[in-house]
Design brief:
Helix content: 25-40%
CATH topology of the domain at 148-353 and 588-613: Dimethylsulfoxide Reductase, domain 2
CATH superfamily of the domain at 148-353 and 588-613: Dimethylsulfoxide Reductase, domain 2
CATH architecture of the domain at 148-353 and 588-613: 3-Layer(aba) Sandwich
Bound molecules: ligand MGD, iron/sulfur cluster, molybdenum atom
Radius of gyration: 25 Å
Strand content: 15-25%
Length: 754
């Protein structure tokens, strides 16, 4: 679309966080020799994000232009990573990787995927293919630093790991936010662009926003009420809420009654969790706990939403379960204005197969070799990656493929992981930077700039507060010799499958599609035959072709002509800024995929684990508890190299309550050491101190993703203000045993002057 003589405007779905805002990217001289991004702004025409954007969206320009962003492959020669051609890079992989796996077996390969993989359709769709073809049990991702508890609990209760209930914020009257800060994070496991505006609208129609968090966060500042709790104690609060609902006879299952199984077991399990016990653990007065239960039960439309603060804890999965139980027992699950299940237009895994019953979710189909952690949704805990590499014996990981992840900073005990990566026989990284993790690779395969690829939100349609279908075409042409990331992954797959480094990718992609089409037809025998489906799909290739298939066979799809006005990718792509498909609608019981066909209110593993909370010691009065912190101009570990975000005050600062500082004789601005008894003196972190009375006394806060002072990286801007790595203080073994998710919050620490 032309806005000025040489400037054109292009739609792009922002790939930088889960809000998935639609943006306009203005480009000068797009088809000339030197196209240039002029500016980025929110797309008012986008029916889903309605013009919202944040500073990170603006930084897409910086990301595109960043001179440190890799544009050519790197291959390690004579101990040094050096620029190479694509052919050289893949030939090198083809030479080294297959022999290793032939000698040591498929499990000798580890695969690890990170957060950006979910934000690029080519990576997400083709990583899944790669993982299947690799045949290794050693699959890891950032999920076990994040949302695995939520997905597992949803799987156990409703039968699918993507049947996640999200707040229907636009119709809600009481929204309780626990362990999340959507005013800054822009929402997670809940795709809700412009949370602030929607929260304001909720309040101005007479609704209430309540935030429960150890810090009076930016979200809490907007709220009607903030309850401060001790980190790690949520299980006591949540179990007490459920108990209150029973003891005050407020359980209302409504329409869902006939489908709920296990209510008596729930009642028995929460019996010991009184409001008084919750008060002792959380610090929230018992009468406020009771009042909250009552408010949730009485509000006509209400939702309790919990996120990463509730997941990265010892009782993460139990917390996530109790949250959905509160919504279920108060009659707010699957009801407008409550916690509802999105139905994605494409890739809605939970719409496949016969409605109302399914295979459900099982865990522990295999276990990690060293610590014996169970597999969960196909993955092992990423915190255990280092020991799987370092511990000799059959099944040891000797080669690794990392895709869009920086676990040296984002996972516990990065120093140990760095040492492990250094000892690998072979490592490949698909990434856009030479950073703390990829510096250990033998081959780095750079992804393209997001502006050079098309995009459809494969995962986030399943988590959106409203239904939509949006596609963004490539904003800028990619350099002709730079393959898209799906082809990088597909070529790795070809190498692992014995087809060699110069396999015919188009043929392989056709073969894989053919398999998908056959699978689609088995799941849904009414679909046209495979050839009749393949023909119209052939206008697209790669991930776009898979999106077209998913849209056509999805709940709004044209079913290849069987439903004449149904969706196709061409139709979605024609809309200037995507299509609105309306508000969320009730989906139970058809959504259920549990073997029983019921909502499993009391999954046995969770009931058993809840009982263990009773063995937790009550908190010591003088302890300091460390929590994390997200800031608008930062994103996990990888956006610290972008000038527009890096400017301004130093962000990697330890926050402490003034009272705690006074008790230790500490002054704001001074450098302090933070650590704990489990760490050598040298491993304590040194970091500047700031005082904030928004924190609960006894709680200190430090953001994660910093520590850019390691040698061998190419991150000039980030290295100027490196910060320290919070995850050096975390334990590789502290995890929620049910989901394998690391404990990253509520860790006891000590702080002293240096
Ligand atoms: N203590 C503590 N630790 C945490 C958290 C916390 O709250 N506290 N949060 C956790 C959470 S929620 C998450 S999701 C994880 C995130 O941890 P990771 O998944 O490791 O993600 P990042 O640290 O963001 O690193 C992203 C990597 O992807 C690369 N990358 C960026 N864009 C692209 C691209 O387009 N293509 C490719 N191929 N690569 C790209 C970057 O260069 C970087 O190497 O961190 C976790 N770690
Ligand atoms: N600007 C920015 N946005 C981001 C990211 C980023 O790094 N920067 N990361 C993205 C990613 S990968 C994710 S997963 C999402 C996460 O999105 P959110 O889940 O909203 O994450 P946070 O902002 O870390 O909010 C977690 C809150 O939990 C609180 N908390 C800590 N411990 C506890 C506890 O024990 N109990 C309770 N109840 N609360 C606790 C913290 O004080 C914090 O306010 O954000 C995404 N968006
Ligand atoms: S909130 Fe910011 S980073 Fe997130 S999608 Fe929107 S513009 Fe991108
Ligand atoms: Mo995350």
């Amino acid at each position: 679309m032309s806005t000025a003589a040489s400037t054109s405007r292009h739609y792009r779905i922002c790939p930088l966080c889960e809000a998935c805002c639609g943006l306009w990217v203005d480009v000068a001289d797009r088809d000339g020799p030197t196209p240039r991004v002029v500016r980025v702004r929110g797309a008012d025409e986008d029916p889903f994000s309605r013009g919202y954007l944040c500073p990170k969206g603006v930084a897409l320009k910086d990301l595109h232009e960043d001179p440190d962003r890799l544009r050519t492959p790197l291959v390690r020669r004579d101990g040094r990573l050096q620029a190479a051609t694509w052919d050289e890079a893949f030939a090198h992989i083809g030479q080294h990787l297959p022999p290793l796996l032939q000698t040591h077996g498929a499990d000798a390969l580890g695969l690890v995927a990170g957060n950006p993989v979910v934000h690029k359709m080519g990576l997400l769709l083709y990583f899944a293919r790669l993982a299947r073809a690799a045949g290794t049990r050693n699959i890891f991702s950032a999920s076990t630093l994040d949302q695995m508890p939520k997905q597992l609990q949803s799987g156990l209760m409703f039968g699918h790991g993507f049947s996640v209930a999200v707040p229907d914020i636009d119709r809600c009257q009481l929204l309780v936010v626990l362990g999340a800060n959507p005013a800054v994070s822009h929402g997670s496991m809940w795709t809700v662009p412009d949370f602030r505006q929607r929260a304001k609208a909720l309040r101005s129609r007479g609704g209430r926003l309540v935030v429960i968090d150890p810090r009076r966060t930016e979200t809490a500042e907007m709220a009607d009420e903030h309850l401060s709790l001790r980190p790690g104690s949520d299980v006591f609060l949540l179990a007490a809420l459920v108990r209150e609902l029973f003891t005050t006879d407020r359980v209302r299952l409504g329409r869902l009654g006939p489908w709920v199984q296990g209510l008596d077991a729930v009642r028995a399990a929460v019996e010991p969790f009184t409001a008084a016990l919750a008060e002792r653990h959380t610090g929230i007065p018992a009468d406020q706990v009771r009042a909250l239960a009552q408010a949730l039960a009485q509000a006509p439309q209400a939702c309790l939403y919990g996120r990463i603060g509730t997941c990265t804890q010892r009782f993460g999965t139990v917390n996530s379960w109790l949250i959905d139980l509160v919504n279920l027992l108060t009659g707010h699950l699957d009801e407008p204005g409550g916690a509802m299940f999105p139905q994605a237009a494409a890739f809605a895994a939970n719409t496949q197969g016969p409605p109302g019953r399914g295979r459900g979710v099982r865990t522990g189909r295999h276990h990690s070799r060293v610590s014996g952690a169970p597999e969960v949704l196909g993955e092992l805990p990423v915190s255990l990656l280092a020991e799987e590499i370092l511990t000799p014996g059959p099944g040891q990981i000797r080669a690794l493929i990392s895709v869009g992840t920086n676990p040296v900073l984002s996972a516990p005990r990065g120093a140990q992981l760095a040492q492990a990566l250094e000892g690998l026989d072979f490592m490949v990284s698909v990434d856009i930077y030479l950073n703390e993790t990829t510096r250990h690779a033998d081959v780095v395969l750079p992804g393209r700039s997001p502006l050079e690829d098309g995009h459809y939100d494969v995962a986030f349609g399943q988590l959106s507060h409203r239904h939509h279908a949006r596609y963004s075409a490539p904003v800028l042409p990619a350099p002709t010799d730079h393959p898209p990331e799906w082809q990088l992954l597909l070529r790795l797959q070809a190498i692992l499958s014995g087809l060699g480094a110069d396999a015919d990718l188009a043929a392989l992609d056709d073969q894989l599609l053919d398999k998908d089409l056959r699978g689609a037809r088995v799941a849904d025998p009414q679909l046209p035959d495979v050839a009749a489906m393949a023909r119209p799909l052939s206008t697209w290739s790669g991930p776009e072709r898979l999106v077209d298939l998913a849209l056509r066979t999805g709940p709004w799809g044209d079913r290849f002509g069987q439903r004449p006005h149904g969706l196709t990718l061409a139709q979605v792509a024609q809309a200037p800024a995507g299509l609105d498909l309306g508000p969320l609608t009730p989906r139970l019981p058809a959504l259920l995929r549990t073997p029983s066909g019921a909502i499993e209110a009391a999954p046995p593993s969770l009931v058993d684990d809840l009982a263990l909370a009773l063995t937790q010691p009550e908190p010591a009065a003088d302890a300091l508890w460390l929590v994390g912190r997200r800031e608008v101009r930062s994103n996990n570990s990888w956006m610290h190299n972008l000038p527009v975000l890096a400017k301004g005050p130093v962000r990697c600062v330890l926050w402490m309550h003034p009272q705690d500082a006074a008790a230790r004789g500490l002054q704001p601005g001074q450098t302090v050491a933070i650590g704990h008894g489990g760490l050598d003196e040298q491993a304590w972190l040194q970091v500047p101190l700031a005082l904030h009375d928004a924190l609960r006394p006894g709680v200190v806060s430090l953001p994660h993703g910093w520590g850019h002072d390691l040698p061998g990286t190419q991150l000039a801007t980030a290295a100027r203000r490196p910060g320290v790595n919070l995850n050096a203080l975390m334990s590789a073994q502290a995890r929620d045993p049910i989901s394998g998710t690391s404990v990253l919050s509520g860790v006891p620490v000590r702080v002293r002057a240096v």
